[in-house]
Specification:
With 325 residues, the chain is mainly α. It has two domains: 200 residues, Alpha-lytic protease prodomain-like, CATH 1.20.1510; 118 residues, Alpha-Beta Plaits, CATH 3.30.70. The two termini are 43 Å apart. Keywords: Membrane, Transmembrane, Transmembrane helix, Transport. Pfam families: Cation_efflux (PF01545), ZT_dimer (PF16916).
């Protein structure tokens, strides 16, 4: 968690410095096109500040009021960031459209292009670093902030190209027209972040995560684990919570059942690369399970095994034993 906070603090400091650099470029050139990047840099600063707050809150241990921890705040952080990006993009589109009809003179274009190019390169390097660390640390906030910086880098690259065109093609409408295009791109980026945050807040199924868990269980399943069903996964920041039903032989005593449940927990936590909390409900096997059960020397078997059922996301997530599929 200390590493997450350190990365966000660095991102916040860099964002403040680059914001002043971009506004300097705007005041030098009076370019609406550059203003699009400068306006978005304000969002970078606010987003990094809120990301620092959310990561600090998410690091708090679970308590009576928050039995699953505070990790959900990271989705709220992404929601705020996406909203701010969207507002900035809409504002840029309106201002650029207005300036298409009432253009003004742009000056010292190459100076502005150099400043924007440098800020874009810095944001790109920092953004890629934050995305990689965010994935490794399972932090949606770091990853979202990093993608925002990558968006800033792409925007800056487009600005440099556009400013170069403006230098050689001095059309009055070109500055505003390009700013509208960039504004639309920023709006789309904000929408994607909003979509991702709402999916997390609404506990939308993350099929990639569920599929990874199913593959781990399927690859290392034991004969005692007759079937797994009603598997559901929820992400709370850097932690994953899973509940499922595990069918075991009905003649196992409570100690044996506990050992098998604990083994499933250890297996996933060792291989899933994400801290996972399991809530496993155990079901006793039924006679209808025999035809796909591999348990050797079973004292209650009613029929021989005649089929292998591979665990897939489809049959593991259903609230039914596999013979009911």
């Amino acid at each position: 968690m200390k590493e997450k906070r350190s990365i966000i603090i660095v991102a916040l400091i860099v964002s403040i410095v680059l914001m002043f650099a971009k506004f300097s470029a705007y005041f030098i050139t009076s370019s609406n096109f550059i203003l699009t990047d400068a306006a978005e840099s304000i969002v970078n600063v606010i987003a990094s500040a809120f990301a620092f707050f959310s990561i600090s809150l998410a690091s708090r241990p679970r308590d009576v009021n928050h039995p699953y921890g505070h990790g959900k705040v990271e989705f709220f952080s992404v929601f705020i960031e996406g909203t701010l990006i969207g507002i900035a993009g809409i504002t840029i589109v309106f201002k650029g459209t207005y300036s298409l009809f009432f253009p003004h003179e742009v000056q010292k274009i190459l100076t502005g292009a150099i400043i924007i190019g440098i800020t874009g390169a810095i944001n790109g390097g920092l953004g890629y670093y934050m995305i990689n660390r965010g994935k490794k640390l399972n932090s949606i906030t770091l990853e979202a902030d990093g993608r925002h910086l990558i968006t800033d880098m792409v925007t800056s690259a487009g600005l440099v190209i556009g400013l170069t065109l403006m230098y050689f093609l001095p059309y009055p409408w070109l500055d505003s027209g390009l700013s509208v295009i960039v504004g639309i791109y920023i709006v789309v980026t904000g929408y994607k972040l909003l979509r991702k945050s709402i999916a997390g807040l609404m506990d939308e199924a993350d099929f990639t995560v569920v599929n990874d868990i199913v593959n781990i269980l399927n690859a290392q399943r034991k004969v005692e684990w007759i079937d797994v069903h009603n598997l559901r996964a929820q992400k709370y920041g850097h932690e994953l919570h899973i509940d499922c039903h595990l069918t075991l032989p009905n003649y196992f005593d409570l100690n044996r059942v506990h050992d098998e449940v604990k083994l499933v927990d250890k297996l996933v936590n060792r291989n899933a690369n994400v801290k996972t909390e399991f809530f496993i409900h155990t079901d006793p096997c039924l006679p209808n399970c025999c035809h796909y059960c591999s348990m050797p020397n079973c004292p209650i078997r009613s029929e021989p095994k005649n089929i292998d059922i591979e665990w897939t996301m489809e049959n593991v997530t259903r609230n039914k034993k596999h013979f009911e599929q």
